[in-house]
Amino acid sequence: MLLTIKCVQNVIKPNFQKVANPLASRLKAELKLSFNSSRSNREISVLYSPAARAAATGGRINLRRFYGTLNTETTTKKRKMVMRLNEQERAEKLQPLLDAGWTLVEGRDAIFKQYILKDFNQAFSFMTGVALLAEKINHHPEWFNCYNKVDFTLSTHDVGGLSSQDIRMANYLETQANLLK
């Protein structure tokens, strides 16, 4: 049985010695785990005995030590405050999109456009690229796909209307759709 660093990091963590000892006795082999704690990170070392290594690798019996570190300090990105577009920003940034075929949604502060692509594969590829950007900027569009058609409605729910995030997403959609033509 081979314990990986990921297993040690994600499953066993600080109480791993309690779990490792029964595992070692079940294997009837020596398995040493050490845990060093410092201020900024934790180091985990897994030492396999020749018997455990041979059982895991099918006969090669040299002693190996694997190291991994855990970063205990959490780094959280501070999200920029997104603001609703004012009238000046609407005139400057929204007008080029309206000229490119985007329409204002009746009854809410949102924009809509339908893209018709060559086939389902191209539509799915297009949506995959959009999904990657959406995750990166943490701004997810409302969309609908049927075969080669992809409908997008963009609005920022946090501000109750259109924001710079919607403009950025719409410009990305336009750029990607033009590349696919």
**Count of DSSP H/I helices:** 6
Distance between the termini: 53 Å
The chain-level structural class is: alpha+beta
Average per-residue pLDDT, rounded, comes to: 75
Overall 3D geometry?
extended
Q: Runs with pLDDT <50, length 5+?
A: 27-31
Largest sheet descriptor: 4 strands, antiparallel
What Rg, in angstroms, do the CA atoms define?
A: 27 Å
Q: Report the count of strand segments.
A: 7
Order of helices and strands: HHEEHEHEEHEEH
Characterization of the model:
The structure is a single chain. The relative contact order is 0.12. The chain starts with a helix and ends with a helix. With 181 residues, it is an alpha+beta fold. The radius of gyration is 27 Å and the shape is extended. The strands form 2 sheets. It has a 4-stranded antiparallel sheet, covered by helices on one side. The chain has helices spanning 5-12, 16-27, 50-57, 87-99, 120-137, 164-180; strands spanning 31-37, 41-48, 65-71, 103-104, 111-116, 142-146, 149-154. It has 6 helices and 7 strands, in the order ααββαβαββαββα. Residues 27-31 have low confidence and may be disordered.
Structure summarized in a few sentences:
The chain contains 6 helices and 7 strands, in the order H-H-E-E-H-E-H-E-E-H-E-E-H. The protein is α+β, with helices and mostly antiparallel strands. The protein has a 4-stranded antiparallel beta sheet with strand order 4-5-7-6, with helices on one face. The protein has a 3-stranded antiparallel beta sheet with strand order 1-2-3.
